[in-house]
Design goal:
By secondary structure, the protein is an all-alpha fold. Helices cover 81% and strands 0% of the residues. It contains 19 helices and no strands. Helix 1 crosses helix 13, helix 5 crosses helix 17 and helix 11 crosses helix 17. The longest helix has 35 residues. 54% of the residues are buried. The protein binds phenylalanine (PHE) and sodium ion (NA).
């Protein structure tokens, strides 16, 4: 079998991980989660989750991956013993299901991008009697959605089939910088719009009352969003760290990745809300359709809306593609390492399976709720907790030893890290005993 691939450059790994982290979660989900959760108050809670749980959990995945140099199934088995293969199997399963609908949603963004190429959003809306919701219903279900899902999966498979260096690393070196430039440009543009101010205050004024009233639903929502946005709980970071050839300082790498993901999520809010408010729209409930419906109405209304919209939807497609690659890479690495498949066959075969599973979503959005609800609320949190149990409770010494490579003496950081991984598990146990 061919030699296992590695990243060509220092930045290749970081860009790939940033590309994975920054995705639909940042742009399609985060702004509305924040608005629903009481603005800045939710933001504070989310940041705490990222720092206190997300960061330690990311290091845990890095350590497992770099130590074992395997896909999640092989990595967890090597790290924790044979029974842990099944946890790895769940990770691969999550990757399959998550990518299947992620790709369909990415296809919707391609569709809206194409609308911008074809003419003004105002004209398109007129064709639907001004009803952006009707337009959404029409564009996201049926043949168009199916074709664009096909296209997006084909692009994802193409990149992953080319390999870690020639495919993923090359792609993210272009995509991630482009993404950042585009989003900063959009945020600046949004800032210049009349009425943008209302957007900032809606987004950023803290309503601590919302948290006090709803903390039982907001806390798990913030935790789920934290794992989702950092691509934790299903083995992306295990897989990407398994391609590290040198012993790097994983703590600074983790901080860099988290810094970019959080910064870009925040930036997305600075794009979305001023645009909404400048068009006189009040963002309502969150949910998958909000960004499409609201943004279309806004782009139909504001001057330069056609170009602005085209750039916005296109940017989201780029973000989604660099995340999709990472999802397919988990599944592909599994097929290569564990089943001895050649890379292009693994990527193609698994891509086809994922593609087929996603097809129902292009016919009825019921499937989206079904898939997404299951993954986001249950499985990612489960996956992240399993890695934390393994690293924090079962083999902490190996983990500390591995983390110290490339850093040197950890001082008291090792204890802080291990306990940061252990405590959430205790909390979850206590809460479930209390509830159950
Ligand atoms: N982090 C990605 C986002 O925010 C989603 C994702 C989750 C990607 C898990 C890979 C693994 O959109
Ligand atoms: Na993200």
């Amino acid at each position: 079998m061919a030699q296992r691939e590695t990243w060509a450059t220092r930045t290749g790994f970081i860009l790939a991980a940033v590309g994975s982290a920054v995705g639909l979660g940042n742009i399609w989900r985060f702004p509305f989660a924040t608005a629903d959760g009481g603005g800045a108050a939710f933001l504070v809670m989310y940041l705490l989750f990222i720092a206190l749980i997300g960061f330690p959990a990311m290091l845990a995945e890095f350590v497992v991956g770099r130590k074992s140099k395997r896909n999640p199934v092989g990595a967890l088995q090597e790290y924790g013993g044979d029974a842990w293969r099944y946890v790895g199997g769940i990770f691969v399963f999550i990757g399959v299901v998550l990518l299947s609908y992620y790709s369909v949603i990415a296809g919707w963004f391609i569709r809206y991008f194409l609308e911008g190429l074809r003419g003004s959003y105002a004209d398109h809306l007129t064709a639907y009697n001004g009803e952006a919701a009707a337009m959404f219903g029409d564009l996201t279900v049926g043949l168009d959605a199916f074709v664009l899902h096909t296209l997006f999966m084909a692009a994802t498979v193409g990149i992953v089939a080319l390999g870690v260096r020639q495919g993923i690393e090359l792609a993210v070196k272009v995509m991630v910088p482009a993404l950042i430039v585009l989003l900063v440009g959009l945020a600046v543009w949004a800032f210049t719009l009349d009425g943008a101010g209302g957007g900032y205050s809606y987004y950023l004024s803290p309503e601590f009352g919302t948290i006090a009233d709803n903390w039982t639903t907001l806390l798990p929502a913030a935790a789920g969003q934290a794992f989702f946005t950092l691509s934790l709980g299903m083995g992306v970071m295990i897989t990407y760290a398994s391609y590290l050839s040198e012993d790097r300082n994983l703590a600074t790498d983790g901080l860099t990745i988290i810094g970019f993901d959080t910064g870009i999520a925040f930036l997305a809010g600075l794009v979305v809300f001023p645009i909404f408010f400048s068009a006189g729209l009040e963002p309502g409930e969150g949910g998958p359709s909000t960004i499409f419906i609201g943004m279309t109405e806004a782009f139909a209304d504001i001057t330069g809306g056609q170009l602005l919209g085209l750039v916005f939807f296109g940017t989201v497609v780029v973000a989604a593609l660099s995340s999709a690659i990472s999802l397919l890479e988990v599944v592909t690495a599994y097929a290569i390492d564990e089943k001895g498949m050649e890379r292009w066959k693994a990527a193609g075969g698994m891509g086809l399976l994922i593609y087929v599973i996603g097809i129902p979503v292009t016919y009825d959005l019921i499937f989206l709720d079904l898939y997404d609800g299951f993954i986001d609320a249950v499985l990612l949190v489960f996956g992240a907790l399993m890695v934390m149990i393994l690293v924090g409770w079962i083999a902490p010494k190996v983990a500390v030893n591995e983390l110290s490579k490339g850093i040197g003496d950890l001082g008291s950081f090792d204890l802080a890290w291990i306990w940061a991984i252990r405590v959430p598990i205790i909390i979850v146990l206590v809460i479930s005993l209390y509830l159950g």
